[in-house]
Design brief:
The complex is a heteropentamer, with 1 copy of chain A (388 residues), 2 copies of chain B (360 residues), 1 copy of chain C (317 residues) and 1 copy of chain D (300 residues). Chain A is α/β, with parallel strands linked by helices and 388 residues long. Helix content of chain A is 52%, strand content 13%. In chain A, helix 7 crosses helix 8, helix 9 packs antiparallel against helix 11 and helix 9 packs across helix 18. Chain D has a single domain, classed as MetI-like (MetI-like fold). Chain D has 14 helices and no strands. The chains are: A alpha/beta (388), B alpha+beta (360), C mainly alpha (317), D mainly alpha (300). Chains C and D meet through helix 3, helix 6, helix 7, helix 8 and helix 9 of C and helix 1, helix 2, helix 4, helix 5 and helix 6 of D. The structure holds adenosine-5'-triphosphate (2 copies) and magnesium ion (2 copies). Chains B, E: It is a peripheral membrane protein.
Chain lengths: 388, 360, 317, 300, 360
């Protein structure tokens, strides 16, 4: 049966990963109809939601699991997979458990997590630092210290794309690294506005200010263009989730040799366990419904998990798969995961509305030098206070 | 038998009343001309009769049948428009037969009718041409033909000649008159050209502001206009109007600036009440020289301006300080500054009330 | 300006009395002498030329870039003509550029665009012309009110209407289908087209319409037999406006279709935004040009008719 | 006459065909425009998130809207962009039309050149200009390569002037049509006026300014409507050129609406912004539309 | 002294020659009317004189100065256009003074001139209004005023009255004539209305196809047209044309279908060569009844159609099988089918060559 699957994985590494899912699904005798929407989740999500609410749902669709699809589930537009989950024992398979929590509403499971993405990575170009004649930094402070040397060598110290979510990501990563996971949880999870306005966050904002100065010359839009600057040595580093690794792989670079990764900016080795999940809008055609189940199972099968996540540069959602093929960075991630140094992803903590407002703030902050760190913090606190 | 009856018809566009409780009876076979200045509602009335405008009030009968709410095509009328309104993309033949085809008439019946109409109007050689390839006069003939083939009882003409030049206009005028004599249909003809009205009409209805001022035979309207408006509207050069006062007494007279015009020979409509009045006299009713002195009224005047018009000449002077024109034959040599004796017969004049403008 | 140019004339006359013909005319005779390189001409043509360059520049850059290889582009001068002409980017843009797993470039979008544009143009023009005709010739009570609403509707940003339209389409079960999109284009094309047609039909002599009514033709007969054959100029304008508008539409195309029915602009956006590694500017430009080709050709072919039709339908109010 | 209104048909059935034929228009006007608008306004008073829900929060969404820097930037940008587009389109369009009206040669060629951008979508326009204005490849780099090292022309990357960078592309796309309209208007002016002005010895520019332009009122109105309706809708161009960046410097209201409705999944906020846009449209357009179409009637 | 001289002027639009080696001398103070059918090049000639069109060849002199290459404003002309061409957004005063202001004239001089012109034309009360708030006649007056304030030697009028209705036209005609008498400027006036031409002109130039056919005083043109075109163009109702043959012999005669009209009293231009010819006689030169029998030629005819025109009546009959109309006073009662005796004096007729149409 043909099943249309929409997603926004169109960069090189992502496309290669999707191909693995498609291959696995096609092998079940069904057919993966690819519905890629380029740009980013920001462009794709409205279209997906429009399709679902408009009564022409696709077979399956990617969302960042968390609260993005919450209302669609509440409105009864999504298929309940509890039965299948119980049959296949997802609760046991999936590790960490919080992943499945993101898919659960009122005790029912509505989505299939396919990978774990962590945001807290600093990717460094070994070549850039060699060109600038400084050692590859081991943590954020060293990185900041090395920035002037990079600049002198005509290298942009920090590459950040102009898409709003990238700026927010950079901020959040800095926050977790410098202020610790509890603060993160309190600010984003508990919406603690006092804390958000407090001195601890001021430190973070000051660091973000530094980051923005270091990234002033990176005139790129997409995250993978920023990554490509790092790959080519035009930029010293990039704060980006582990999906950036896919790009390094496509470019044939080897972790440790060509590039270096610092989880938690080398300060606080903690990763967030967000990720992508697939939701299955309710279908009238029983054939399609069967295909949906097939897809759900195949997505969680160990083989697919390995193949997919290797290409994508993300971590598998089951703890029981063998990832010998994984590279350095991935292994670092797995270790941290195993240690349980994890925090939930911001998408799971905050509604899209709040996320958008924060995106708006940081994209402005990173582009507009006139917006001081103090003012930005004040506005940040206000948003946190009003967020739900 | 009456052919068209308009009964108490009113029509307004929004708050603006164009026709006001208008009544009109047209006997069968009559050539009725609606004459009036621009904007007086002539076309509106014609459109009401044709069914192209919905009346606000009143009724319309054609051949005794109440057609107030009928579609135009069911009223038994044919209409000819000022701009010809030929269908530009069809040949002349197509133009003539369009209505018949629409009505689903049989082929050979259509061709018989088209042949007949084009013979009457002598447009046979044009049948295969498109309107763009016709001269103004030919177009107008085709437009008439289109009404003709419909074989209707009543023809409506809305200023059919006013887009043509003077020469063609007078030619086609004669043709229309001949056509009426041949067909003997009822025809209602709108124009604001008084010459057309005079030459064509059995009766003329002079309209102003949506009201019929006078409805009568052309000569009556010309010679005995019921009010000053009608008097002024007909005739070119127009009637001379002299402002003055009717003086009662044994011999009623009309006084202007020292001059007195006796009115004993004037046929008063009703008893003359003294007061402000206007005396109207047509330029061609003014006699000159010897003939003038035999007239009941005569005066000596100075010539101000001479307008030779070819066939005759118009002479402008002042009478009692007011502008006054009269017509003489073209042979007469008169020039500016001449002093002449003129005279006229008040019996041929018209006298209007100073206030209401009504004929006294 | 004109004045100054002509003031130079008498001097010229002084030197050139001999130009008068043998008929013995003395002094200036015949047409005023005019220099081809008068200041006026230099100003006019100079300005037009400069402005023309501004208008042509982007097209030039797009064409030139699309014919270069990536290495040449990285060297940097966007204005320099290609050293080595390559049609690779065009081929790639048309048939092999990838979005996600689909690597068939714009070609798929092209046929989708055709399948969307043709019925949309047809339907929207058919409906709008009948509307315009009804408004201009068969005025009935209230028609003007609806029309005013419609025209005000032309100003409403489409984004505002996206959601309500989703609901409407869902309710009538057309969401996601080609016909749903056709309907959307028809709806949003209606205000401006109706305005154009109404103005145009109102400028035709009303007597023609009356004559046809006397001839017994009804609403549809008059429209089909009398009005349509006379409306070529405005139909040309409408077709051009709609073809370009619908062909170029992105928002509705992306919101109301699904991947197998994506029009070309959406494919274009996908290709341009689905960056795999470095941005392939040459492919992007080729894709851009390919997408713009259809409306461009239409404009180049029928620009003259367009201008004439605009004069007939838009200027009269 | 006994039956005074005999045969008077039921009002609704007169011109029945015309009414039937107008149903699509009436439906569009009522359901889509009136209905959609009312629906939007209605839900702007709720706190609908992803899906519309009738839970009212009064004017909260509006208060939040006007406290949001992004919205304020968007409104300011729209004002700048609108005024500039209006002024420059009219001025450039008119100047070009006036030049074209000088009985020039190659008129068709020039006209085609000025008009062709109109055939391209905003997406295409935006991409082309993004490319030309890109500091690493475009004009800036070309000039620098010529030796002027300090030359800086990167409107799309400079938050202070980014809106003008968008304007350049917008004008490029739209002025051709304006020129065509103006040209049609100029050609529609009675030739005797020109002759009278020449006999009076009035210089060309003065004739244009004092006589011809005031006579082109109807064309100007049409043009204004076309430009204005384009301004309010500006969206694709911004998305294609800058995606609202750098930062939020080139945000426009239409984009704000779209983003909040679909990205932020805060329909209420999006609807509130829509309603503000509608309000401004209504304030400008309704009086005009009434005068133009509602008030007076055509002669018959 | 001559005021305007047009010397060998030719003008072509592309391959189409509108004016062909045209010559014209207008003495100072003359009122010259250019008369001709539509498209004959009248406006073109006027525009050449005004400098609004470049001549293809030839010269134009105004007041003895060669102005062929001068700008319109430097030629000392004022022009009045058919469509008035008033500047719609300026008040009447603005319309009158705009040209003067542009020329940099002093304020008080401007107001003197405007005051004078508006007094002459009696438009003082209108000075503050805009053209849209004026009637047709008032607009035309303002248009004349705009020419007047320029204080020029030559006035050019291009069909200034043809957009007005008949009544207003005849009124303004008189005003223009008066204006000319007052100012005594040279005036060149284009029209295709022969009545206007006859009444206004000192001399008329009848044009056809870019060539002046005849240039003479109105009466001469009316009574002694040089060719059939001129004869037919003037007069309404038009001249009757009878096709026939000139028969030589002792007493030359004109034969049509059995009838012979003696031509001994006709003033031949040159010796009559026998052959096909056309005899033209004006409807008002035909006598009726007793008067007819005293005429050199008389015949009995049957009345086909009667057109009462108010002031007089046109009667259509056939003479020698050809359509023939004559005019009688309105009082005479004639109806269709009557048989009457008519007659005319061939001395008042015109005879044209059958081929060339030239007067014989
Ligand atoms: N559709 C309309 N809406 C409003 N007013 C109208 C309409 N049609 C005509 N009128 C007005 O009604 C009046 C009468 O118009 P109508 O066309 O009947 O005049 P008319 O006597 O035929 O004039 P003309 O000789 O100029 O044709 C005019 O004042 C006109 O302005
Ligand atoms: N700009 C032009 N280009 C080409 N032909 C022209 C132009 N202007 C006028 N003509 C032609 O020249 C001829 C003379 O035109 P002109 O306007 O002088 O006629 P007219 O005698 O004034 O006629 P009317 O009485 O209709 O005003 C006409 O056949 C016309 O078609
Ligand atoms: Mg009328
Ligand atoms: Mg003319």
């Amino acid at each position: 049966t043909d099943l249309e699957v929409t997603h926004w994985w169109t960069s090189g590494g992502e496309a290669a990963a999707v191909a693995e899912l498609a291959k696995a699904f096609d092998a079940t005798g069904n057919k993966w109809v690819d519905g890629a929407i380029a740009g980013s989740g920001d462009i794709a999500r409205p279209i997906m939601i429009g399709r679902i609410t408009g009564g022409d749902p696709m077979g399956a669709t990617q969302f960042n699991h968390g609260r993005q699809a919450e209302e669609l589930v509440q409105a009864g537009l999504m298929r309940d997979f509890t039965e299948l989950a119980e049959k296949e024992g997802w609760t046991k398979l999936i590790h960490p458990k919080s992943l499945l929590d993101g898919c659960t509403l009122d005790g029912k499971i509505y989505c299939v997590p396919v990978n774990i993405h962590s945001q807290q990575w600093l990717w460094l170009s070994n070549k850039a630092f060699a060109d600038a004649g400084v050692a590859v930094p081991k943590n954020w402070d060293e990185f900041v210290a090395a920035a002037p040397a990079l600049e002198k060598a005509g290298i942009v110290p920090l590459a950040i794309g102009q898409q709003p979510w990238q700026t927010t990501l950079a901020f959040q990563v800095i926050l977790v690294a410098l202020a610790g996971p509890e603060t993160f949880q309190k600010v984003f999870g508990d919406k603690d506005a006092t804390l958000a306005a407090g001195p601890e966050l001021a430190k973070v904002f000051a660091a973000a200010d530094q980051a923005r100065n270091m990234s002033a010359k990176s005139n790129v839009q997409e995250w993978n263009q920023a990554t490509s600057m790092v790959i080519s040595g035009k930029a010293g580093g990039q704060i980006m989730g582990d999906w950036a690794q896919g790009e390094f792989q496509v470019a044939g670079q080897v972790a440790g040799k060509d590039y270096t990764c610092l989880p938690g900016l080398g300060v606080n080795e903690i990763i967030s366990t967000g990720g992508d999940a697939f939701y299955f809008p309710k279908q009238t055609d029983p054939e399609k419904a069967k295909a949906q189940e097939a897809l759900a199972s195949v997505m969680l099968s160990p083989a697919t998990q390995v193949a997919f996540n290797l290409k994508k540069g993300s971590l598998p959602v089951r703890g029981d798969v063998d990832l010998n093929a994984a590279n350095d960075c991935m292994k670092k991630g797995l270790e941290i995961l195993a240690k349980g140094n994890i925090i939930p992803a911001p998408d799971q903590l905050m509604s899209a509305d709040g996320v958008t407002q924060i995106n708006d703030l940081f994209v402005e902050f990173f582009a507009n030098k006139e917006l001081s760190a103090e003012d930005a913090q004040k506005r940040f606190a206000e948003i946190i206070a009003a967020a739900d | 038998m009456t052919s068209v009856v308009v009964k108490d018809v009113s029509l307004s566009f929004g708050a603006y009343d164009v026709l006001k409780q208008l009544n009109l009876d047209v006997p069968e076979g009559e050539f009725l001309v609606l004459l009036g200045p621009s904007g007086c509602g002539k076309s509106t009335l014609l459109n009401c009769i044709a069914g192209l405008l919905d009346v606000s009030d009143g009724q319309i009968f054609i051949k005794g049948k109440n057609v107030t709410w009928e579609e135009p095509k069911d009223r038994g009328i044919g209409m000819v428009f000022q701009s010809y309104a030929l269908y530009p993309q069809m040949t002349v033949e197509g133009n003539l037969s369009f209505g018949l085809k629409t009505a689903g008439m049989a082929r050979d019946e259509i061709s018989t009718r088209v042949a007949r109409a084009s013979e009457i109007l002598q447009i046979e050689p044009l049948l295969k041409r498109k309107p763009a390839a016709l001269s103004g006069g030919q177009r107008q003939r085709v437009a008439i033909g289109r009404a003709l083939v419909r074989d209707v009882d009543v023809f409506l003409f809305d200023e059919p000649l006013s887009n043509l030049d003077a020469k063609l206009r007078s030619e086609l005028r004669v043709e229309i008159k001949r056509l009426h004599q041949k067909l003997a249909n009822t025809m209602i003809y709108v124009t604001h050209d008084q010459i057309e009205a005079m030459t064509l009409a059995d009766r003329i209805a002079v309209m102003k502001g949506g009201v019929i001022q006078q409805l009568d035979a052309p000569q009556v309207i010309y010679n005995k206009p019921v009010n000053r408006f009608v008097a002024g509207f007909l005739g070119s050069p127009g009637m001379n109007f002299l402002d003055g006062e009717v003086e009662g007494g044994a011999v009623p007279a009309f006084g202007i600036a020292g001059t007195k015009i006796p009115l004993d020979r004037y046929g008063f409509d009703h008893v003359a009440a003294p007061g402000k009045a206007v005396l109207g006299i047509r330029p061609e009713h003014v006699a000159l020289g010897d003939a003038a002195s035999t007239m009941p009224f005569s005066a000596e005047i100075g010539v101000e301006l001479v307008e030779p018009m070819g066939s005759d000449t118009l002479v402008w002077t002042k009478l009692g300080g007011q502008s006054f024109a009269f017509r003489v034959e073209a042979e007469r040599h008169i020039s500016r500054g001449d002093r002449l004796c003129i005279g006229f017969d008040p019996a041929r004049a018209s006298l209007f009330d100073g206030q209401s403008g009504k004929r006294i | 300006m004109v004045e100054q140019v002509f003031r130079a004339v008498p001097d010229m006359a002084a030197v050139a009395p001999a130009t008068s013909r043998a008929s013995g005319l003395v002094g200036p005779s015949g047409p005023r002498p005019r220099r081809t390189f008068s200041r006026r001409n230099i100003f006019i043509y100079g300005t037009l030329f400069v402005v023309a360059i501004y208008y042509l520049l982007p097209l030039y850059v797009m064409v030139v870039t699309s014919l270069k290889g990536m290495p040449e582009i990285r060297l940097g001068n966007i204005f320099s003509p290609p050293v080595e002409i390559t049609f690779e980017p065009w081929v790639k843009a048309w048939s092999t550029a990838c979005t996600g797993l689909n690597c068939d470039g714009l070609s798929r979008g092209f046929w989708n665009s055709v399948r969307i544009t043709v019925p949309s143009v047809f339907l929207s023009i058919a409906i709008a012309s009948v509307n315009g005709y009804a408004l201009a010739n068969w005025r009935f009570k209230g028609a003007e009110i609806f029309f005013t609403v419609l025209v005000v509707g032309a100003f409403i940003p489409y984004q505002v209407m996206l959601y309500p339209v989703v609901i409407v389409l869902r309710e009538i079960g057309l969401y996601g289908s080609l016909w749903g999109l056709v309907l959307v284009h028809t709806i949003f094309g209606m205000p401006i087209l109706t305005l154009l047609f109404r103005n145009y039909f109102a400028s035709l002599p009303e007597e023609l319409f009356k004559a046809a009514r006397v001839d017994g033709a009804g609403f549809w007969t008059i429209y089909l037999r009398i009005m349509l054959p006379m409306s070529l100029p405005i139909f040309v304008v409408a077709v051009i406006l709609q073809v370009t508008g619908i062909w170029n539409d992105f928002l509705f195309g992306v919101v109301y279709t699904k991947p197998d029915t994506y029009p070309m602009t959406v494919q274009l956006n996908n290709i341009v935004n689905a960056v795999q590694g470095v941005k392939e500017y040459n492919v992007n430009m080729a894709a851009t040009l390919l997408t713009g080709l259809v409306p461009l050709v239409i404009y180049f072919v029928s620009g003259k008719l367009f201008v004439r039709g605009i004069a007939a339908g838009a200027v009269k109010g | 006459m006994t039956p005074m209104h005999a045969g008077r048909p039921f009002r609704l059935f007169r011109n029945l065909n015309a009414k039937i034929a107008s149903i699509p228009m009436i439906l569009t006007a009522l359901v889509i425009f009136v209905g959609g608008t009312a629906w939007t306004v209605f839900y702007s008073f709720t706190n609908s998130k992803l899906l519309p829900r009738a839970s009212f929060v009064g004017f909260d969404q509006y208060e939040r809207l006007w406290a949001t820097p992004r919205w304020l930037v968007a409104v300011e940008n729209l004002a700048i962009y609108g005024v500039c587009t209006l002024v420059f389109s009219l001025v450039i369009g008119f100047l070009l039309a006036a030049l074209m009206d000088q009985k020039i040669r190659f008129e068709n060629t020039f006209r085609t050149i000025f008009l062709y951008p109109f055939a391209l979508s905003f997406i295409v326009t935006g991409l082309a200009w993004q490319w030309i204005l890109n500091p690493n490849f475009g004009i800036q780099q070309v000039v620098r390569n010529l030796g002027w090292e300090s030359f800086t022309f990167d409107p799309l990357y400079n938050a202070d002037i980014v809106i003008y960078g968008i304007l350049i592309a917008g004008l490029w796309q739209g002025t051709g049509l304006i020129m065509c309209l103006m040209l049609a208007g100029l050609r529609g002016i009675d030739g005797d006026i020109w002759k009278a002005a020449r006999v009076d010895g009035i210089p060309t520019w003065k004739t244009y300014v004092f006589i011809v332009i005031p006579m082109m009122r109807p064309v100007l109105v049409t043009t204004l409507v076309i430009i204005a309706s384009g301004i309010v809708k500006v969206y694709d161009l911004v998305v294609a050129q800058t995606s609202g960046g750098p930062g939020i410097a080139s945000e426009v209201p239409a984009k704000y609406v779209y983003n909040y409705m679909f990205l932020a999944q805060n329909l209420g906020q999006g609807f509130a912004a829509s309603t503000m846009m509608l309000l401004s449209v209504v304030i400008v357009v309704v009086p005009w539309a009434y005068l133009e179409f509602g008030g007076k009637r055509r002669h018959g």
